[in-house]
Every structure is written in structure tokens, then in C-alpha cells.
Amino acid sequence: MTGISPRAAPYALSVPALALLGAFIVVPLCLIFFISFQERSATGLWQNVWTIENYRRALTDVFYVKILGASVRIAAITTVFCILVSYPIAYHLARSTGAVRGACLFLVLCPLLVSTVIRSFGWVVILGDGGAVNALLDVAGIGRRKLLYSETAVIVGLTHFLVPFMALPLMVAIERIPRAVEEAARSLGARSLEVFRLVVLPLSFPGLVAGSVLVFTLAVSAVVTPLFLGGRKVQMIGTQIYDNVTVAFNWPFAGALTTMAIGVTVVAILVARHTASEGRTIR
Amino acid sequence: MAGPAPRAEAAASPILQIEDLTAFYGRARAVGPLSLTVNEGEFVSLLGPSGCGKTTTLRCVAGFVRPSGGDIRVRGRSIVDEPPHRRKVGLVFQNYALFPHLNVRDNIAFGPRRHRYPKSEIAARVEGIIARTGLSGLAERLPAQLSGGQQQRVALGRALALDPDVLLLDEPLSNLDRKLRQQLRGELRRIHREFRKTLIYVTHDQEEALSLSDRIVVMMGGDIIQIGTPREIYERPASAVVSEFVGECLSYHGRVIDPVAGQDRVVIESQDGSRWQVPLDSGALAPGDTVRLMIRAESVEPAASEGDEASNVFRATIRDKYFTGERIRLVCEAPGGSQIPVGVAPNSADAAREIGSDLLCRVEPAAIRCFPETAS
């Protein structure tokens, strides 16, 4: 048997993963990109006529522009909420040890252990007209509110689902900040909020950027959560693509929306990379 | 409460007074009760092995550990209920804990800015510190772009920018290599002279404590076991434990046989039968008392001849041999089985001796410390 040279080994070992990614992600994406420039067919998935009509429609029809805007808005707000919720959790995780840490980590990861459908149903029960929140509002004398099937409900559901994707990178980043650096700030007169703003935040910035990219991309392309918690009233790119594939059978248009969703993600990553390098140079 | 009578310390003004300080971690007593008075401008080291309570004491003074009892006063004002930043106490951390994202100037300006000093005063202070710590020209650098010595200056400067009454240093040199450590000790002495601050320095390194301090506080198991100048600690350790901690020692359990007439010496027979002469000033000893003898490795030297009984000569076996630069060390197994390194000149006849051969050794009686054995 001829050995593989140590220098070639990393490449050789990554062949299976690359083959899998190539076959099931790159090739389908290329197909989607190709279809998005084809015409819709009444009988098949598409007909082989080149056109840019799908993109013209997605970018000029107010209905779709609004959906694109709503998706970006929902994803951005979700990201902000995830940051707000995750920082205390991540800080606590990073600074605790042993059994406490294990238990907390498990709690943070819990949302990922449940299927999206079941998790969303959970929120339907909590936010529904006869749900827990409304029952409380009733008792408190505030009166029942329409909570379900709104952007708020979608943002709540997405935040719940996506907190682990923010909390874990933040935890790793905060762990790298020596405790003594925080104590130094404190001994020099920084109050708790100043310790956070002047020490923890800037030093965990890379984790913040990484988490934001993850949360934003996952939120902007969400399907199941907006479907369950937003109903017909809240449309996002994901739900539109889903409708066009399964209901309207307009694959070329779904392809155009998909390409645009990927475009939004790429822009988000580029912005994040830019911010991260700015953060490094400004200090 | 029956407090101690006021001590005659008016001449040197005490800046920090620790009184009956105790600190617990859960149920375990970490410190105390411990009392210590530090005078203005003094360089005091807390010396002891890890877990002796020295760092806990320091953190009590800094305000990061809440004492369970006792009082800490700076210039007569009790600070135990004050938050860390209102104590007028500066802290220099192990590994310095500089802010890695801030340049030298911003690191030093951090304290004054948090205390909302006027902008012009902040600038003046910071530039003053930069100049006096020898950091001019490095103000725009990040900590990662500085050498170990420069980092130490930033850490000291950052703490000094708030003009603290007392500067606390928590093993600042412990993770550095030997050469750098020696260089930084010199810098520490220089900064102490330059700023004339009161320094409290925590270390487990006896050499560091001996070379830096005006006074050394030796701690063990949460208690102070001796306070003294470096020479006192080294030459007149108060107990066998201090003696053992401050240097490499041969140790014997023995019994007082008889005072030697007219020579101010006591003869002591150790358990293995060897006899030692020690100075009478080792404490009041009566025939029959059990004692512990401590012999510093540095005070053992090769002997030319057997000599008489008064010369503390003993026969040892060479077990190992190594070169340390200016000396060759012969690791000698003394009567009773314990080993000590005996230094000899590299070109001497003794240096040529083989491992396994015998070596005659002698100790000056004055170099032997003798401690009454506690009944246990």
C-alpha cells in the first residue's frame, strides 16, 4: 500500500466532506441559480427559456419588496434581542465552573433539542388567545391581547430558538478575558456597567460578530417559525419560497427569491467582517 | 474590648493598619486573626508558600475579599466597608492584567477617567506617569507590543495614576523567566524610590522577598509567623519553619548535653549520635531539653581535617554533583540521611571528588540555629 504524504493528508482527508458538500449543496445551489433565470412552466417545473422576469418581479413588485424588508427587519430585531438575552447568560456560563456550568449549558442548548415544529407549537399555546400570557394579562386586569400571528410573535419564537447560536460564541469570547482584567477595571473605579462597556464588550467583540452572523442568517431564512407564529399576516422570504415551491409550483420564482436570500446573507457576512476589522483597528 | 496598649509608633507614621483580620472561604479559615502595621513609604513583602493566606490578605485590603472579622485602616480611616475603588489602594496583578485593547496611554488614563477628573488634569497626570515610568515614546503601543519590563511599568503606572496611599502587588513576577525577574526586581526598586509609595508585595519566592523588602512578613497557614527585616529573617529565623522556608537546610532533632565552659556554647547530641556545638544565644536551654537544629546549606563547607570536637566537623557521602556557574555543588548525604548541596570552587581539589566518595564538612557554630522542640 502506498502511503499518502503528510502534506497531502489534510486534503485527502477532507475529500469525503467536500464530496458530500459538493453533491448536496453546491450542485443544488447551481441548479437553483440556473432555474431562477428560466421561465415558469404550466406542466413541468420550468421551461428552458432564459429570462430575468423572476428577478424583475421580486425587486419591483411592492408585495415582495415589503417581504424582503420585513425579513431583514425581523432578522435584525431578533439579532438585537438575542444579543440582549445572551450576554448575561454567556457571561454567567463563562464565569461558572463544574456542575453549575454543565447544568446551565444544558439549559441554553435545550431549545435545539426540540423540533422546530414542536417548539413553535409551544409558543402557539403560550401566546394564543386562551394561552398562558393572555390568562395572566386577564388576571392582572390589563385585558387579553392579540399576540399570536404577529411580527412580535415571530421575533419571540426566533429569539428563543436562536439564543444558543449567540450565547455560545459569546461564552467562548468572554472565557478568554482574564478575570483579573475585570478586577483591574473595578479597582480603578469602573462601575459594573463600565466594566461591561469598556472591557467585556470590546474584548468579546469577535464573539458578538460571529454570533450575530449566525443568528441573522438563520433568522432571515426562517420558514417554520414564521409559518406557525406569523400565520398569513407575517410573510418572510423563507415562507414565500416555501409557498412558491409547494403551493404555487413556481420554481423559477422560488429560485430567484432563494438567490436573493443568499445575497442578503452574503451582504450580512461582509458587513460583519468589515465591522470586526474596524473593531480591531479602532480600539 | 480590651485593645492592645497604644504602641510607640509615632515616629514612623503608620499608613496601613490591619487589626485582627480574619477571612474564611466557606468554613475553612484562610487568614487570621492577623494584625500588621505598615509605615509610610515602606516596602513590605508577604512571604509564604501557596495557600498561606498572603494573597487573601492582599485581596482583603484591595476589597475583593470580604473579611469575616477585624478592621483595615488606611491613614486611620476604616476601609472594610468601602468598594475597591474608594480605598485609595492600587493593585498590580499577577501577569499585570493590562487592558489588551487599549494603548499604554489609555491604560494609564483608565483610572483617572473613571474618577471623572478634569480633562486637563487627566492629561497632565498621564503624561507625568508616562515620563516617570520611562514609557515615553511607547504611549501609542498596545500591551502586546511591549516587552515584559515595559508591561510591568504600564501596570505600575496604571495603578499609580490614581495616586494611591498603598500599592499592592500580587506576585507580579511569578510567571516570568529568571533573567527577566532579576531585571524587573531592579525596576521595582527604582519605581519604589521614584514614587516613594508604600508597597505591599505578595510572593512565595524568598529570594525576591529578601532582595526587595524593607520588612518581610512570613506567613504560614493563615498566620504571621515572623515579621522582620530581610537580614533578621535570614540570619535569625524565629522558628524551624521559617528557617526551612527561607533556605535549604539540614535539620536535626536533638537533646542538649551540656554547656561548654567559658565558650558560650551548648553541645547538642542529635538522634543519630553526632554532636554539634551551637551558640548559647539560641535561647535559654537547659541540659536535657529537646531541640531542633537547622543548618543552612550555604554555611556548610569542606573541612581540611577532622579537627577537635569544637569545630562541628562531620563526614558526608557525595550523592550527586552539578555545576552552577561560579560553584560546583556536591550533594552530600549527612549523618541521619538528609542531603544538602555544598558549594565548592570549581578548581578546588574537592570539586574533583567522585560521586560515592566521602567529604569532610564543617559548620561554624554561629551558623547553626537551634529551636526548642514544641511538645507534640
Write the layout of secondary structure elements.
The complex is a heterodimer of chains A (283) and B (376).
Chain A (H helix, E strand, L loop, with lengths): L8 H27 L2 E2 L7 E4 L2 H8 L1 H34 L2 H16 L2 H12 L4 H9 L10 H25 L3 H9 L4 H12 L1 H16 L3 H6 L7 H10 L4 H32 L1
Helix pairs in contact in A: 1-13, 2-3, 3-4, 3-7, 3-10, 4-7, 7-10, 8-9, 10-13, 12-13
Chain B lengths: L13 E12 L2 E12 L3 E5 L6 H9 L6 E6 L2 E2 L10 E4 L11 H11 L4 H14 L15 H13 L5 E5 L7 H18 L2 E6 L2 H7 L2 E6 L2 E6 L1 H6 L4 H7 L2 E12 L4 E6 L4 E5 L10 E7 L3 E3 L10 E11 L4 E6 L5 E6 L13 E6 L4 E5 L4
Parallel strand pairs in B: 3-8, 3-9, 6-7, 7-8
Antiparallel strand pairs in B: 1-2, 1-4, 4-5, 9-10, 11-12, 11-14, 12-13, 14-20, 15-19, 16-17, 16-19, 17-18
Structure overview:
The complex is a heterodimer of chains A (283) and B (376). Chain A is built from 13 helices and two strands. Chain A has helices at 9-35, 53-60, 62-95, 98-113, 116-127, 132-140, 151-175, 179-187, 192-203, 205-220, 224-229, 237-246, 251-282, and strands at residues 38-39, 47-50. Helices cover 23% and strands 35% of the residues of chain B. Chain B is built from eight helices and 20 strands. A six-stranded mixed beta sheet of chain B has the order 6-7-8-3-9-10, sandwiched between helices. Chain B has a five-stranded antiparallel beta sheet with strand order 13-12-11-14-20. In chain B, strand 9 and strand 10 form a beta hairpin. In chain B, helix 2 packs across helix 3 and helix 2 packs parallel to helix 4 (148-160). The radius of gyration of chain B is 25 Å and the shape is elongated. The A-B interface holds A 178, 180-181, 183-191, 194, 198-199, 202-203, 283 and B 62-64, 84-85, 89-91, 93-95, 97-103, 110-111, 114-115, 142, 158-159, 162.
